[in-house]
Amino acid sequence: MACLSGEYTLTVRAINSYGQQGEPATTTFRINAPAAPAGVELTPGYFQITAVPKLTIYDPTVQFEFWFSEAKIADAAQVETSARYLGTGSQWSVSGPHIKPGKDFWFYVRSVNLVGKSAFVEASGRASNDAAGYLEFFREKIGKTHLAEALWAEIDNSKLKDEMAEMQTTITETRNEITQTVSKTLEDQNATIQQIQRVQTDTNNDLNSMWAVKLQQMQDGRRYIAGIGAGIENTPDGMQSQILLAADRVAFINPENGDTTPALVTQGGQTFINEALIKTLTAPTITSGGNPPAFSLTPDGRLTARNADISGNISASSGTLNNVTIAEDCTINGTMSADRIIGDIVKGYTVDMGQGVMTQNQLTFQKMILLKDNMPFDRKLMLMAYSFSRGEFIMKINDKVVVHARSGKVKTGEREVQISKNASRYEPVYSDVGGSASGSWSIPAGQGDVRVEITFRYEADVLFYMGGSILHDKSKIRIHDPVLFYLKSYTDDFDTAS
Predict the structure, then answer these.
(1) Percent of the chain, pLDDT > 70?
(2) Which positions fall inside the Tip attachment protein J central straight fiber domain (predicted)?
(3) How many C-beta atoms surround the C-beta of residue 89 within 10 A?
(4) SS3 for 405?
(5) CA-to-CA distance for 441 and 404, rounded, in angstroms?
């Protein structure tokens, strides 16, 4: 009986021989289609890719369906009609000459159990692009063939007869064509080897020459060909000499040092080279080794590099940079937009006025700061509003007074003053009016360092209080610190001060 998906409650109770029942034990469980794979791990091999799905929580009742495609399928609903079904298992490998390195292949995998199937999960990958590994792979493959064994075998010259060599010379001198054919048939298999040496005259009375060795084998109704040929022809474009190779695989092997690892292999429209020195290379697409590749350059000019050290000039119209450091100066001619800037595009200074000094019946606070900033653009120096109840505030820029503000007094009334037992007079009553200072000033580009001097003075008769009592120790007196901002100027505002 098929089990329907859904939530179930199972109740079990014990019963004895007298029919008495115990307390029931109940549990709730679900029977559902499996969850989709959390991911599919693709392992590259030589002309091979292995897909291993992963579940978030291991379930021994779950298997996986594997589907394969050489092109990406945009709609998951089309997987079963567009992709090739591989089979069901815990993992699957696809291999063969068609799994070429440098080409993307797609796997579509879903979880299956007795209840149902999950949605498909897509994964794309490539075969290994390890050139050295491929050459070793070919060395083993080639070394197991009869042709390789025959090539490596030493020729026994003792079996050759002198008169045979003389006969071959005679045939060459007396005929325009020599064709030698060796053939053998075994059941539905047939193999033929043909060697051709020909010198002929074509319809234009032009002389052509060729030499070729051709191997042909029939099996299961399919023809397989391998051959090598050399020829010289008189064509409409002039004399043409050429050497042609016809084979599924062409390899160059140097037997001198006994190493049978090929230096070059051509198979399936691809060439694998151990090492090359090329003077000029024109390649629409360049891809480095690694999985994923560390470097690639596509025909549309897209350059991808996982780690680049560029010491020359870079010219770009757009792009994105993450976590970069500009080691030296940088010029931005246009507009820069930034969510957050740490640096001196806008410099803020809190000027610590420190401890005052008594001079000429005055308590004076003075501080000089040097703004080291010789930028190629105009700056604005701004003094934030500075208020004080009594005293005098002076600010200089490069020895020029730009702010001079004082506190003042205003008559607020009169008071009666007793001058004798029977006489008095009225004197005006004054209240202090505090002062304030603020302003902004243009600092032209290229002016060099800027000296800013701030001075604040109290008259000696000013009384200072701390905790309700007169403070006689003037060294304990502090004033609040002025605040300056130094920023790039974007307008031609005139200087202001108050």
Answers:
(1) 84
(2) 193-320
(3) 11
(4) strand
(5) 14
Alpha-carbon gap, residue 219 to 61, rounded angstroms = 44
Going from the C-alpha of 333 to that of each of 330, 336, 376, 377, 378, the distances in angstroms are 10, 9, 11, 11, 14
Sequence-separated (6 or more) residues with CB below 8 Å from residue 367: 351, 352, 353, 354, 453, 454
Q: Specify the DSSP class assigned to residue 172.
A: H
Do the bridges between strand 303-305 and strand 295-297 make them parallel or antiparallel, or are there none, so unpaired? antiparallel
pTM reported for the whole predicted model: 0.51
What length does the chain have? Answer: 498
| Angle, CA 95 vertex, CA 94 and CA 100 arms, to 5° | 110
C-alpha span between 271 and 266 (Å, rounded): 4
Q: What is the pLDDT of residues 195-241, one digit of tens each?
A: 888 888 877 888 888 888 888 888 888 888 888 888 888 877 788 88
| Cβ 247 vs Cβ 226: under 8 Å | yes
| Sequence ranges of the domains in the chain | 39-129, 346-497
337, pLDDT greater than 90: no
Q: How many CA atoms lie within 13 A of 7 on its CB side?
A: 2
The conformational region for residue 311 under phi > 0 = left, psi -120 to 50 = alpha, else beta, is alpha
CB 190 within 8 A of CB 225: no
Rounded Cα distance between 8 and 61, Å, is 18
Rounded CA separation 444/440 (Å): 13
Whether cis (ω within 30° of 0) applies to the bond prior to 292 is yes
Q: 354-401, pLDDT tens digit by residue? A: 888 877 777 888 999 888 766 777 788 899 999 887 888 999 999 999
Compute φ and ψ for 423, nearest 5 degrees: -135, 150
The Cα–Cα gap between 283 and 286 comes to 6
Instruction: Categorize the per-residue pLDDT at 409 as very low, low, confident or very high, splitting at 50, 70 and 90.
Output: confident
Per-residue pLDDT tens digits for 469-497: 555 555 667 788 888 887 776 654 445 55
Q: Is 326 exposed, middle or buried (0-12, 13-18, 19+ CB in 10 A)?
A: exposed
Burial label for 244, CB within 10 Å (0-12, 13-18, 19+), is exposed
For the domain made up of 39-129, give the CATH fold.
Answer: Immunoglobulin-like (2.60.40)
Spatial distance between the Cα atoms of 162 and 63, rounded to a whole number of angstroms: 71
Q: Which residues contact 417 (CB under 8 A, 6 or more apart)?
A: 424, 425, 426, 427
Q: Which residues of 27-49 are buried (b: 16+ CB within 10 A; e: fewer)?
A: eeeeeebbebbeebebebbbbeb
